[in-house]
Amino acid sequence: MRTSRTTILEAYARLLADEGERGATMDATARLAGVSKGGLLYHFPSKESLAEALCEHLEELVQADAQTMRTAPEGAARYYIRTSSFEGTDLDRTLVAVARLSRTDHPRAVEVSRWASELWLSVLVDAIGDADVARAVKLVGDGLYYEALLSDPEVGTDVDRPDPGDPSTGAVPPVAGAPRQAIGGRDLEGLLRVIDRLTDLAG
After folding, report:
1. What does the alpha-carbon distance between residue 114 and residue 60 come to, in Å, rounded to a whole number?
2. What spatial distance separates the first Cα and last Cα of the chain, rounded to whole Å?
3. Residue 5, pLDDT score
4. How far apart are CA 117 and CA 58, in angstroms?
5. Concatenated DSSP letters for 103-136?
6. Is 95 in contact with 54 (CB distance < 8 Å)?
7. Nearest to 97 by CA among 21, 150, 148
8. Residue 28 host element (H or E)
9. What pLDDT, on the 0 to 100 scale, is given for residue 150?
10. CB distance 157 to 149 below 8 Å
11. C-alpha angle 190/91/106, rounded to 5°?
12. For each successive 10 residues of the chain (203 residues), what is the average pLDDT?
């Protein structure tokens, strides 16, 4: 059963992801969550308490994901690559929101973002047995996630994208009617075979 606290936290995460820290005000969060300002303050007496709760939520989600990764029948490396696509899950939304918060040098957000990255890497190292190969696998997965994130129109980013209308940037104008898509199907299976060869090298 959804609680008011959960609804408020999800609204805060959505605002952070879409509008950044400045747009994620207490008033905006209450409005998006559909609660009164008093109702929000009952659960979260300050904006800092909201940020802390969001970071704690990310820790819980990442711990659960890391455990799933450790026991995945296909192996940790394949699992990491296969799930490196922004699907709008609770983990996706929370990860992006905390990342946006960390860009303001929020100490707790910076700490938990680094911790999450290090935990995923440690699971890969344990599973693969070679730190260099594990780091290569993680970089591939992170690149896939970043690309999928940029292609999602509902998620705002602070990334400076090249202007395709400016020839000096060297950016290629997008083809009309052909938006970028997250990797999948044959492309994903082909990439997974490459990952298999990488992990075989570590064996």
Report:
1. 15
2. 46
3. 93
4. 12
5. TTT-HHHHHHHHHHHHHHHHHHHHHHS-HHHHHH
6. no
7. 21
8. helix 26-33
9. 72
10. yes
11. 120
12. 88 92 94 95 95 96 96 95 86 92 94 96 96 94 84 51 39 35 67 90 78
What residue type is assigned to position 117 of the chain? S
- 79 exposure class (CB count in 10 Å sphere: 0-12, 13-18, 19+): buried
Q: Which two tokens stand for residue 104?
A: 């303001």
What pLDDT was estimated at residue 162? 39
Instruction: List for the chain the helix, strand, coil content (%; round to 5).
Output: 70, 0, 30
d(CA 203, CA 199): 7
pLDDT of the residue at 184: 60
Task: List Cβ neighbours of 133 (8 Å cut-off, separation of 6 or more).
Answer: 198, 199, 201, 202
The identity of residue 127, as a single letter, is: A
Judge contact between 103 and 16, C-beta under 8 A.
no
- pLDDT for 186 equals 66
The number of residues in the chain equals 203
